[in-house]
Amino acid sequence: MLVSSRERACRNCRKIVSGNVCDNCGSTSLTTNFQGLFIALLPEESKIAETLEIKKPGHYAVKVG
Ligand SMILES: [Zn+2]
Predict the structure, then answer these.
(1) CATH class of 8-64
(2) Full-model pTM
(3) Domain segments of the chain: what residues?
């Protein structure tokens, strides 16, 4: 799946956001240099979310450069 070039990943929590501030953790350390996309729907039930330390539903980068 391709992500719009306007979207950026938070370096802190890997959430993919379209603004200048991460709406998950409040960090402004965002990057367009990220790989992969993980859509967390029920993070509390997902092993992948647990591995990535994702606790809230949303779109996340698998790897942030
Ligand atoms: Zn964040």
Answers:
(1) mainly beta
(2) 0.82
(3) 8-64
pLDDT at 52: 85
DSSP bridge partners of 60: 15, 38
- In the reported structure, the alpha carbon of residue 27 is separated from the centroid of ligand 1 by a whole-number distance in angstroms of 5
For ligand 1, a single-atom ion, which residues have Cβ within 5 Å?
A: 10, 12-13, 15, 22, 24-25, 27
Provide the pLDDT for residue 23.
93
19 burial level (CB within 10 Å; 0-12, 13-18, 19+): exposed
Which residues fall within 8 angstroms of residue 45, CB to CB, at 6 or more apart? none
